[in-house]
Amino acid sequence: MVEMEEKGSHATRKKGGLLTMPFIFANEFCEKLAVVGVEANMITYLTTQLHMPLTKAANTLTTISGTASLTPLLGAFVADAYVGRFWTITIASIIYQIGMIGLTVSAALPQLRPPPCNHDRVCEEADGGQLAFMYVSLLLGALGSGGIRPCVVSFGAEQFDENDEKQTTKTWNYFNWYYFVMGASVLVAITVLVYIQDNVGWGLGLGIPAIAMFLSVIVFVIGFPLYRNMEPAGSPFTRLIQVAVAAYKKRKLSMVSDPIMLYQNDELDGPISMGGKLLHTKHMKFLDKAAIMMEEDNLKAPNLWRTSTVHRVEELKCVMRMGPIWGSGILLITAYAQQGTFSLQQAKTMDRHLTKSFEIPAGSMSVFTVVTVLATIALYDRLFIPVARKFTGLDRGITFLHRMGIGFVISVFATLVAGFVEMKRKKAAFAHGLIDHPHDVIPISVFWLVPQYALHGMAEAFMSIGQLEFFYDQAPESMRSTAAALFWTSTSAGNYASTLLVSLVHKFSAGPNGSNWLPDNNLNKGKLEHFYWFITLLQVVNLIYYIFCAKMYTFKPIQVVKKEGAEHGEKWSLLIKSGPENLGALRQLSK
């Protein structure tokens, strides 16, 4: 059930809509400010404050980032199955707040860090206790973000009534707004917060986002009376497992000749089919056996571990069809992850002066990525969509699959360019005799890194928002928090893949004379360009895989029934729609 209205003595006000956006976006802004305020410059903190070797620090960072992107599965499960999105976001924000406080304390107290390096640059690495305190704080943050990330995006989207003709384009526009707000938050983090961390102190640099997170919880809770709240419809994972078990139990049965003979129960499926009933598809017929009716089955109160409805079978098919598209996004995140590790290390060796007295912090270089993301979103929303709409007839201009494909292509060029820039950086180091001096600044402008940062930002604006739209649109209506979690788990998998790839390349590229593509202490003696080109090759293969998956993909078909009203003789109209304009079709029924 969706809580739709708030009744007063004189009028009834519809809940949701644009009025709720400031409260929801405030929470997202502060959560992202806290996350990026930590991640953007964390490799600097690990290497300069905790004295970790570069490779270990890079892997620690991507592993924590991967974990933070994996926990949304847990948050989505709790929201969809038990407490709903509002309470999941609220509780998760409090947990995140505790983690941020712990991290701030870790940075502020000297006893929680190793002593500074001596004059001979001999550094003592952080001990087990110091690392443990920091890891616990980071993991609490990862757990908290797991409840915020998947729920905020779907909670915000459901504030727009899909059956209200006045909100025809609001749902898919929301994803652009959501990502724009998130980008604006990132922009503040990688400029203001990184500058404070590098030039004022880590305690204050981490304390500011902790305070912002506290304020966001207050603002979000204040908006409670305005929200449309979707009641939890039971564990989606349980339903998916029930279908798989029922199909396995009936695996030896012959398939029915006509799909209309498969079991359907509108009363049973009502709470989980708010946006329309999923129709039978011809793919993955082995799962259809779960809906074959047998004489011994009690169809009024069925044992769902033995007999499933067509709608529930199609829920599992939806999730399985999304799997290959989900997997294709992993390598893009793997490529993007290098901005916070090796690209940042490149920046630290280059001339970062804007003026004689002001130097750009290395951790702030990703500002060029974020600015490109924001500019691309604005141009896409205001210029590209109106033009594309005239040719395609689609409200959103192009399908989310096309949008994702464009992002993949741009990402290939981003890593290709990064390899050539690294060659130029090393050539400058060699020309000035700095190959053996990793801590000296090479007289080459850091702005040579701007193209790779900007291309990654452009790729993200296309790929990430397209992926969010894809998961939200193609997921069963009762599993949209879970679908949003899939977006973050692809980020998680990409970060883990980066950790694995860096470890393998570091191991197998090691030479007998100590040479390595990815050396621990002197990037000038490495072959980082080869690593970038290897990622480029992997992305080309991945692009071919994605094109194949996109061509083979079957959009979910839905059936919506609309009652015409007494003046029409209680007639019912039926719409069956498949494709990325499902939501638009649903809205047309309300007219």
TrEMBL record:
Coiled-coil regions listed: none
MF GO annotations: transmembrane transporter activity
Query: Which Gene3D superfamilies is this protein grouped with?
Result: MFS general substrate transporter like domains
Q: Does the keyword Repeat apply?
A: no
Question: In which broad location class does this protein mainly occur, judging by the first location in its UniProt entry?
Answer: membrane
Check the record and name the Pfam families matching this protein: PTR2
Q: How does it sit in the membrane?
A: Multi-pass membrane protein
- TM spans (from-to): 60-79, 86-112, 132-156, 177-196, 202-227, 358-380, 400-421, 485-510, 530-548
Q: Which GO terms describe its cellular component?
A: membrane
- Among the record's GO biological process terms, what is one? oligopeptide transport
Arranged from A to Z, the UniProt key words for this protein are: Membrane, Transmembrane, Transmembrane helix
Q: Which SUPFAM superfamilies match?
A: MFS general substrate transporter
Looking up PANTHER family in the UniProt record yields: OLIGOPEPTIDE TRANSPORTER-RELATED
Q: Which family does it belong to?
A: Belongs to the major facilitator superfamily. Proton-dependent oligopeptide transporter (POT/PTR) (TC 2.A.17) family.
The molecule here is called Nitrate transporter 1/peptide transporter family protein
